[in-house]
Amino acid sequence: MANPSESTKTETIQDIAYKLAEEQLNQLQLENGPRERTIFILGSKGVGKTTVINTFFDRDEAPRPTLALEYSYARKTGAAQKYICHMWELGSLENSQQLSCIPFKNHGIENMACVIMLDLSRPQYLWSDLMAAYEVLRDYSDRQLAHAENSDWIYEKARERIKKEHPDLATLDLMPFPVVIVGGKYDLFINCEPEMKKHICRCLRSMAHLTGAAVLFYSQKLQKLSKTLRDTISHLAFGTPSHPFRIHATDYNDALSIWFGTDTWDKISSMGIQTLQSIEANLTQEIAQERAGGREQDINPKLPDPAKDAGFRESIIDEMRSQKDEELRGIVRDNMQQLRGKFESVK
């Protein structure tokens, strides 16, 4: 008859062996299976987000307005690793709460990276666009991390991204994933007044430093800046190139190029440690800011009807739409005839 203690001991050894085998299998899958990343691109409407994505994918096509949330993916095979990048583009920051959660829910926060694109040619909307994007990312990341078992590990990676020995670390409110703040349409921003450029650059540097983000100015018309942004997206997606920012530029007379953890409060200004409230106050004191509402017509005064755009054709949906339109026209005709008959009877 077997000793109960021996049976328990044997079972425990089996459990340990099973766990070790499972860990080895998971490690093998991690090493040989595809490495997946998600890049979420959001920001000012009409700033060129679709153009950036088309450039990354080598698409030679005219960009169409992004109506809601667009999805693309890229694959790359290395010497010993396969990579998959899920790329999401948010068309507009207004009323985007329901759409913004999709990239987070589908692929997990530990595999996220975000690019916030802001229109430098419209400085009066800089803060409203920046805060709208920031609040979307902060809200959903906080929700996910509240229930995540690996939240400590995720924040540890965030601290490593800006270096644990950074002198300002205790004063920062880091985002849990890489964020790159991109100032778009830099070719138009070049001609702005020096004082305006100074305050905008200080605002973006302060916001990036506070949240542990990187800052990069961009223009599709300037090949050097366009290539740097493309390399940056490739770095976020596939890890190559390892150093996409070829220079470190902090002068407001130049295109900003500041990698993660390479700025400090002392370098940004003499104002010292900043918060969201103080960054906003400093900007609005120098440059009047407007709210986002009511400017869509100004950005796209004659936005074409997507139902008539050949690029959005779907044969089944278009046929059903045509049938419903014909039914609606028939109902309108019948109602008009009934009304006409009533008026004639009254006469």
UniProtKB/TrEMBL annotation:
This is Cytoplasmic dynein 2 light intermediate chain 1. Belongs to the dynein light intermediate chain family. GO terms for cellular component: axoneme; centrosome; ciliary basal body; cytoplasmic dynein complex; microtubule. Pfam families: DLIC. InterPro entries: DYNC2LI1 (IPR040045), Dynein_light_int_chain (IPR022780), P-loop_NTPase (IPR027417). One of its GO terms (molecular function) is dynein heavy chain binding. The keyword Cytoplasm applies. Its main location: cytoplasm. It comes from the Eukaryota. It is found in: Cytoplasm, Cytoskeleton, Cilium axoneme; Cytoplasm, Cytoskeleton, Cilium basal body; Cytoplasm, Cytoskeleton, Microtubule organizing center, Centrosome. It comes from Stomoxys calcitrans (Stable fly). GO terms for biological process: intraciliary retrograde transport; intraciliary transport involved in cilium assembly. Keywords: Cell projection, Cilium, Cilium biogenesis/degradation, Cytoplasm, Cytoskeleton, Developmental protein, Dynein, Microtubule, Motor protein. The gene is 106085073. Residues 291-311 are annotated as: Disordered.
